[in-house]
Specification:
By secondary structure, this protein is α+β, with helices and mostly antiparallel strands. It is 46% helix and 23% strand. The protein is built from five helices and four strands; from the N terminus they run βααααβββα. A four-stranded antiparallel β-sheet has the order 1-2-3-4, covered by helices on one side.
Amino acid sequence: MVNLNLALATSADIPAIQTLAQCIWRAHYPAIIGIEQVEYMLDKFYSEESLRQQMVEGQQFWLVQNPELKNGQSLGFLAVSDQRGRRALFFAQILFGQRTAWTRTRKKHLRTAAGPV
């Protein structure tokens, strides 16, 4: 079993969020929406200015980390916003890179938790 930690990201973590988003989006989404749309989405939602604005507006980014890794590199991130008036949190994004033990085993974990994926 892989143990993961969540660390609330700050504006100092914007470069890490950008790097993760670029790697993840470019690896997984071109076949679905095309590379032009991927680049548009990265520019629109993951530019430094956009990430800062999202944080100011209350969006929280959480870096997913494996405490067993010594390099401190994040494996992925979550983006969460409080849906005031609805008494709920909205998970806008849950993204993981493809070269992690968590990614290799996540389908197994999801199958266990929620039935077949």
